[in-house]
Amino acid sequence: MNKVNLLLIVLLPLLFISCKKDKEEVLDPTEYKELLNVEYGNHARQQFDLYLPANRNENTKVLILIHGGAWRSGSKNDMNELKNYVQDNFPNLAIANMNYRLANNSTRPFPMQTDDITLLVNHLTNNQSNYTVSNDLGMLGVSAGAHLSMLWAYAHDTDNKVKMVCSWVGPTNLADTAYLNSTNPDIQSIFAQFGAGTLIPYLEENSPLFQVTTNAPPTLLLYGGQDPLVPTSQGMDMRDKLVDLSVTHEFKFYPNAGHGFVGTDLFDAAVSLEAFMETHFQ
Q1: What pLDDT, on a 0 to 100 scale, did the predictor assign at position 65?
Q2: How many Å apart are CA 105 and CA 115, to the nearest integer?
Q3: Alpha helices in 132-192 (DSSP H)
Q4: What strands lie across the sheet with 94-98, from one edge to the other?
Q5: How do residues 218-276 score in pLDDT, each as one tens digit?
Q6: Measured between alpha carbons, how far is 77 from 187 in angstroms, rounded to an integer?
Q7: Strands, DSSP E only, in the chain?
Q8: Which residues span the domain enclosing 266?
Q9: Would you say 191 and 179 are in contact if contact means Cβ atoms under 8 Å apart?
Q10: Residue 251, SS3 per DSSP
Q11: Is residue 169 part of a domain?
Q12: Helix (H) or strand (E) holding 270
């Protein structure tokens, strides 16, 4: 092999890598930008949509949206209406709407799904300069996504990046006897993915109620009295724990609301979310 051919073999991969880097989009912070299905990991579910406001700067906060689906289903698309609501009322916020890997009866949701949140947060941090955003995060989740929001903010946010978390009908205590003794087939099916004979320590380790500390960020709790999947004890016990720890919070309970809010309950919950964010995430 002559020296020219050898040089080409050595240089071509480097040139290819250089070309790939040159094609990375440099974002103009004065312009609004939507980046859809951005990969934050190697799995097909490790993607998120990023909405960057115009005229953003290094103080622009990022709200992470986390969908529900009993830890085994759902999509970031389920959060689009909430995303639109936040954009309309907080046009200066950046929004990251994420998918995460789903559980099944052979793959437990935790720590897999909290690991995915960590990967996303690391991605935002590593790309902070190009995105032109701050390290200050908010988390807004619905149902299982609300549970994950609280759990990550309370137990996995080692750098205290989360400044506000909102739980919209999120389970807070997986070891609750209302769950463990339930005869509801839907609840029994959901809990099967935690593993047959799951030990109480595993459930408590992954329950926001047992992981919250005095360092927890301001928390908004939204719960319904007729919810077939999240017993009333979940929201109320979390409220009491936040009171005991002197954590800033607001608890909104809607006696006639189910797992999905409608009508005046939905309107009041949305207004409460807006007011809470104005106070704690502006």
Answers
A1: 98
A2: 19
A3: 144-151, 177-180, 185-192
A4: 33-39, 47-52, 94-98, 62-66, 137-142, 162-168, 219-224, 249-254
A5: 999 999 999 999 999 999 999 999 999 999 999 999 999 999 999 999 999 999 999 99
A6: 24
A7: 33-39, 47-52, 62-66, 94-98, 137-142, 162-168, 219-224, 249-254
A8: 29-280
A9: yes
A10: strand
A11: yes
A12: helix 263-280
Interval 61-70: pLDDT, tens:
999 999 999 9
Q: Which amino acid is at 140?
A: L
Residue 266 counted as domain residue = yes
Element (H, E) at 222: strand 219-224
Q: Which two tokens stand for residue 70?
A: 């009993």
Is the dihedral angle over the CA atoms 235, 89, 127, 108 positive or is it negative? Answer: positive
- Kindly state the helix (H) or strand (E) to which residue 236 belongs, with its residue range: helix 232-244
Token pair 């995105």: residue: 131
The C-alpha atoms of residue 74 and residue 69 are separated, in whole angstroms, by 5
pTM for this entry: 0.91
Bridge pairing between strands 62-66 and 137-142: parallel
d(CA 280, CA 274): 10
Size (the chain), residues: 282
94's enclosing H/E stretch is strand 94-98
- Total of domains in the chain: 1
Tokens of 71: 């830890």
**Residue 5: inside a domain, yes or no?**
no
